[in-house]
Amino acid sequence: MMKDQTLPKGAVPAVIKAVSILDAIADAGEPLSLAQLTRLLDQPKSSLLALCNTLVHVGFVKRLDNGAYQLDTHLVDLAHAYLSNIDVTREFSTAWDSLGVHSGEGGVLAVLDKTDVVYVACRTSDLPLGVNYRIGMRLPAHCAATGKALLSTLPDERIRALYGNTPLTQLTRHSIGTVDALLEDLHQTRLRRYAIDDEETREGMRCYGAPVFDSPGSHAIAAVAVSTLKHPSDNSRDMTLVDTLLRLANELSSRLGAHGRLI
């Protein structure tokens, strides 16, 4: 949800409020009534009703029979249009196919959004990994292999600024719980050139992630990850998976023009 109340010159407050309604419904993960929106956004019910009616009219929001509001399909159309214009998503599919990745592994391409990663392209495994990857899926960056790969390209002071001193969300008992532990994990990620999610997003699943660059710059624009069921005694299989991951990340970076900035 948008929290910055400082508006740039010429900004239209009604548009900001409309976006805050969309954010509130998205964050809730379920339909919200007008009364709930009023409490969450601390806005007059009358102005929120007018904005909701407008959002319904343009297809961004749907009003259910019980009066609650949920996101509508026009947002999906916009998301697909946005993703279709991102070269990296097309290049991910091409690079994945060219490497002939085993069908037992799942693959994702993700971008960083503050302290979350958002999946913008996915390849589903034939095996039941326990996670149904989908475009638009969002996970805490400090838990996911793609997130840690992306965070590893940022300086430590930037990581501390992002997270502050609050405890980190733990999706499983293996998830990192503090910023200090995250920084140590990112240090190890930089040394070995890839990130590891060892049952941090889902029990029984291990993921490896690596950053993707589009220029010689130091910050990644995206990250790729490959996921598989965890096999503690099969180290050689995991190393093969890591090799595939690094080839995928380098192939994708090369396709995007980062010939001088490969991992």
Ends: how far apart? 34 Å
Shape type: elongated
Instruction: Give a count of the beta strands, DSSP E runs of length 2 or more.
Output: 8
The SSE string, one letter per element, is: HHHEEHHEEEHHHEEEH
Low-confidence stretches: none
Q: What's the number of helices?
A: 9
Q: Whole-number average pLDDT?
A: 85
Structural class: alpha+beta
Q: Give the % helix.
A: 40-55%
Main pleated-sheet profile: 6 strands, antiparallel
**Rg value:** 20 Å
% residues in beta strands? 15-25%
Order of adjacent strands in the largest pleated sheet: 5-4-3-8-7-6
Structure description:
The protein is an alpha+beta fold. 43% of the residues lie in helices and 17% in strands. The protein is built from nine helices and eight strands. The protein has helices at 13-28, 34-41, 45-58, 74-84, 87-99, 145-151, 156-163, 179-192, 235-255; strands at residues 61-63, 69-71, 106-113, 116-123, 138-140, 195-198, 205-212, 222-229. The strands form two sheets. Strands 5-4-3-8-7-6 form a six-stranded antiparallel β-sheet. The protein has a two-stranded antiparallel ribbon with strand order 1-2. Strand 1 (61-63) and strand 2 form a beta hairpin. The radius of gyration is 20 Å and the shape is elongated. It starts with 12 loop residues before the first helix and ends in an 8-residue tail after the last helix. The mean pLDDT is 85.
Summarize the helices and strands and which ones pair or pack.
Blueprint: H1 13-28, H2 34-41, H3 45-58, E1 61-63, E2 69-71, H4 74-84, H5 87-99, E3 106-113, E4 116-123, E5 138-140, H6 145-151, H7 156-163, H8 179-192, E6 195-198, E7 205-212, E8 222-229, H9 235-255
Antiparallel strand pairs: 1-2, 3-4, 3-8, 4-5, 6-7, 7-8
Helix pairs in contact: 1-3, 5-9
